[in-house]
Every structure is written in C-alpha cells, then in structure tokens.
Amino acid sequence: MNLKLTGNPFLNIENPKPWGPGSFEIALPLVQATNIRPGMRILEVGDGSGKIATTIAKNWNVSVITLEPWAQNNEIQIYVAEQGVENQVLQMKIKAQSLLFVDNTFNVIISIGSFEMIAD
Ligand SMILES: C[S@@+](CC[C@H](N)C(=O)[O-])C[C@H]1O[C@@H](n2cnc3c(N)ncnc32)[C@H](O)[C@@H]1O
C-alpha cells in the first residue's frame, strides 16, 4: 500500500538542483514501485544534492542512509536540518562498493542516475 500524497513532493522541492536529467521526475514512480512505507530503512546510492533522500525521509517518514563518495562539505546536513529530518538522513562519504553493512540492513535500496557511474 502506498502512502496517500497530495501532489508530487519531488516536484515541489525548492531550488531543486538535480544532478541528472529527469532525476526528480522519476523519483515518485521509483519510490512507489519499491513500496516504501513509514518506519523503513532506505539506502540511496549516489545522492548528489541530497534532495531526493531528504524528500523521501520527510514525506514517507523513513530513515535514509545516502552515499556520496565525493561530498565536499556539509551542505546536505544543513539542508536536512532545515527540512526537520536531521535525525532521519545520514550521508556517508563512501563508495557503494565499500559498504560494510550486514545482509538485510535495508528494506529498500534506490539509486537515480548513478549506476552508470559505478565501474565495478
Ligand atoms: C548523476 S548524479 C545523480 C545524483 C542524484 N541521484 C540526482 O539524481 O540528482 C550520480 C551520483 O552518483 C555518485 N556516485 C558515483 N559513483 C559512485 C559510487 N561508486 N558509489 C556511490 N555513489 C557514486 C556521484 O558522485 C553522483 O552524486
């Protein structure tokens, strides 16, 4: 069962900064296809601006670990705090290939526009 939403929260992001074409347009169908539900733990591979992770955390009431190996600053932490989900979103400066999580840590793994950048 999908959450009842009024509108598409990814298309209402202020100052969206997508890092790829169609990033925010594809986000809602992807989240709905994976059947994200409140309380789940989500892994996002390749967060870019962090806005997709933040929007999922806020609107689906889940926790999100999000990976950005080339994160330069604390921009995402500032944004998640502004959005009131600082306790639900954690960015890790690590590659997807280096993850050390045990099996079944996450309920859902999502990635938008990032897989083609992961060589191995
Ligand atoms: C085209 S951007 C898409 C970002 C965001 N998902 C969006 O749609 O706006 C691809 C992202 O994948 C990240 N990335 C590339 N290789 C990665 C890897 N091995 N592990 C995790 N993230 C990676 C890049 O740093 C970049 O943030």
Describe the structure.
With 120 residues, this protein is of the alpha/beta class. It has one domain: 3-Layer(aba) Sandwich (Rossmann fold). Helices cover 24% and strands 14% of the residues. It contains three helices and four strands, in the order H-E-H-E-H-E-E. Strands 3-2-1-4 form a four-stranded parallel β-sheet, covered by helices on one side. It starts with 22 loop residues before the first helix and ends in a 10-residue tail after the last strand. Residues 18-20, 23, 45-49, 52, 67-70, 95-97, 112-114, 117-118 line the site of S-adenosylmethionine.
- Small molecules bound: S-adenosylmethionine
Instruction: Count helical runs.
Output: 3
- Give unreliable regions as ranges: none
How big a fraction of the residues is strand? 5-15%
Q: Helix amount, in percent?
A: 10-25%
Q: Number of DSSP strands? A: 4
CATH class, anyone?
Alpha Beta
Oligomer: single chain
Cα Rg: 13 Å
What spatial form do the alpha-carbon principal axes imply? globular
**Number of self-contained structural domains:** 1
Q: In sequence order, what are the helices and strands, one letter per element? A: HEHEHEE
For the report, how would you describe the main beta sheet? 4 strands, parallel
CATH fold group: Rossmann fold
**CATH architecture term:** 3-Layer(aba) Sandwich
Distance N to C terminus: 34 Å
Structural class, from helix and strand content? alpha/beta
Mean pLDDT: 93
User: What's the CATH H-level superfamily name?
Assistant: Vaccinia Virus protein VP39
Strand line-up of the largest beta sheet: 3-2-1-4
